[in-house]
Amino acid sequence: MIKLFKILISYIADLLFPPSCLLCGEYLDDSIYVCPDCLKKLPLNRNESKGHISVFDYDDGLRLMIHELKYNQRPEIGIILGKEAGRRLAEIIDPAVSVLVPVPLHKKRLRKRGYNQADLICDGLGSELNIPVNKCLLKRVKNNVSQTTLNAEGRSANVKGIFGINKTDTDRSKLILLVDDVITTGSTTKEAGSVLKNTGYLNYFALSIATVK
Ligand SMILES: [Zn+2]
Questions:
Q1: How far is the CA of 62 from the centre of ligand 1 (A)?
Q2: pLDDT tens digits along 90-143
Q3: Are strands 163-165 and 175-183 parallel, antiparallel or unpaired?
Q4: In angstroms, rounded to a whole number, what is the distance separating the alpha carbons of residues 210 and 213?
Q5: How far apart are CA 196 and CA 51, in angstroms?
Q6: What mean pLDDT value characterizes the chain?
Q7: Which residue, among 113, 112, 38, has the nearest Cα to 81 in the 3D structure?
Q8: Signed CA dihedral, 85, 86, 87, 90: sign only
Q9: Domains (range + CATH), the chain
Q10: pTM of the shown model
Q11: Which of 44, 114, 122, 148 could form a disulfide with 133 if both were Cys (CB 3.0 to 4.6 A apart)?
């Protein structure tokens, strides 16, 4: 009964507010949030970063998508971004040797948001590139304060010791693609990388949707 009610509500909502593209406002047949044309136009990141790949330039459109994904309960945007990033990376990633590992959230933050945006980005990347996703390899053992108000030095100190490793069947010879939504100073992925390295996962690099400066 509740399910039927929800379907009815979403039907009425679609009639009153037909789904439209988040970026260009074009009406869409389906609730896909962003139209294929806008996705294709997302500019690639032109800056060479040290030690990680950021797929897209952090322009206004991408900023809006990331904001909706993280703060406005739109998990589907993570999948959409992951798939589009996968299409752009198809030629440089070898699925046979790679494993996608999302940067985990602490369970308190996960409970609050209801999902980990990096998990969803991995799901999109994994389905597009045909790469397995291991959501258990890394775990968050400590809840740190949000990085957003900290400078580079504070960020590094704030992430020390926050990750641990779970025993899983991912072979240590695999290339671990450490995935996060955005990278700022890189201190979070650097810390996660050093935990991987200390436990014998020597091949890894960080992959993010964008770099925020
Ligand atoms: Zn559009």
A1: 12
A2: 988 999 999 999 999 988 889 999 999 999 999 999 999 999 999 999 999 988
A3: unpaired
A4: 10
A5: 15
A6: 89
A7: 38
A8: positive
A9: 1-41 (no CATH), 42-211 (3.40.50)
A10: 0.87
A11: 122
